[in-house]
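Design job #97: recover the sequence.
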């Protein structure tokens, strides 16, 4: 049953991450893996898309440099023939501002031939950006013309 095997593989990856064993996480990935975070890399250094083992390694370096995880809880593993969706929750702190934040997330893990070929992270980017920059990001006033200009770059 491939679904059960896929779920077991992904659970082992999360267990390795929880132990701080990034090498075991990397060993479970395809050399050409696509690692994609929905966070904007212009705002959060660990955001955006990375490719290959070195790209994943750089993601974990950036994550560790910017976020202190207090609690990382994968709660539900939903397996399919070539994927596992993981629903979870984290309580963390931004290293830049020391601001705490909570994040309900979903990860989509694509698997082929027993290796992770794609890992997509869907985080609460609003909470991440607020913690990283400190305070309520909606309290900043920007004229519509300034906002339009900044988004065109």
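Job complete. Output follows.
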């Amino acid at each position: 049953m491939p679904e059960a095997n896929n779920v077991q593989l992904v659970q082992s990856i999360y267990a390795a991450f929880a132990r701080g064993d990034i090498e075991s996480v990397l060993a479970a990935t395809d050399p050409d893996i696509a690692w994609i975070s929905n966070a904007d890399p212009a705002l959060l250094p660990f955001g955006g898309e990375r490719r290959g083992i070195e790209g994943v390694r750089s993601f974990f370096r950036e994550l560790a440099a910017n976020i202190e995880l207090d609690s990382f809880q994968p709660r539900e593993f939903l397996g399919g023939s070539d994927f596992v969706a993981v629903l979870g929750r984290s309580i963390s702190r931004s290293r830049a501002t020391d601001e705490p934040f909570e994040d309900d997330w979903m990860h989509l893990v694509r698997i082929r031939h027993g290796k992770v070929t794609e890992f997509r992270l869907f985080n609460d980017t609003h909470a991440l950006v607020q913690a990283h920059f400190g305070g309520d990001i909606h309290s900043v006033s920007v004229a519509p013309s300034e906002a339009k200009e900044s988004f065109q770059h």
